[in-house]
Design a protein that fits this description.
Length: 168
């Protein structure tokens, strides 16, 4: 488990006064400012966050130390992280995506199926992207109770009962 959790990303400048377009990845999108100061992945920069207004696809926000449009544009694509201890404790059946990436995936009989590469959400539900060993492709496994009945973070694995055809 990582000590930093990605909670948002800068998608560019908003206006000419140094505001940024901010995408929030938190359960309550407006709560992203509550986890500040946020840092870059390498920890080189840290920002206090002030949300100024809601805009299409996120928020307009002021980040400490960013005063011009050029400085805001330079942050485009920057992912923002918060230390895990600032985030809420999750119930037993919920997980941070960062905790799932890298876990082994086994079927209900214990046979290895692969390793979780990423977690995607394209609208209706999360999908686990699983690297299939010995193949150049990945498989997309629905992250539902029916398809993934067990997540064992301590053992570093998930047990999957995949729909037919996912790993074929």
């Amino acid at each position: 488990m990582t000590d930093l959790i990605c909670v948002g990303a800068v998608s560019g400048a908003f206006g000419v006064q140094g505001e940024v377009r901010l995408k929030s990845f938190t359960a309550d999108p407006a709560a992203i400012a509550d986890y500040a100061p946020l840092c870059t992945e390498d920890g080189a920069r840290s920002f206090d966050v002030e949300i100024t207004r809601a805009i299409k696809s996120g928020f307009a926000a002021r980040l400490s130390g960013v005063r011009t449009k050029e400085e805001a544009d330079a942050l485009r694509g920057t992912r923002l992280f918060s230390p895990r201890d600032r985030l809420p404790q999750l119930p037993d059946d919920e997980f941070y995506h960062a905790d799932l990436i890298g876990l082994a995936v086994v079927d209900t009989g214990g046979a290895p199926l692969g390793t979780i590469k990423a977690v995607h959400n394209h609208g209706s539900a999360d999908l686990l992207e699983v690297i299939v060993p010995g193949e150049s492709r990945t498989a997309l496994l629905p992250f539902t109770q029916a398809c993934v009945p067990t997540v064992d973070l301590a053992a570093g694995r998930v047990v999957a009962d995949p729909p037919e055809g996912v790993f074929e």
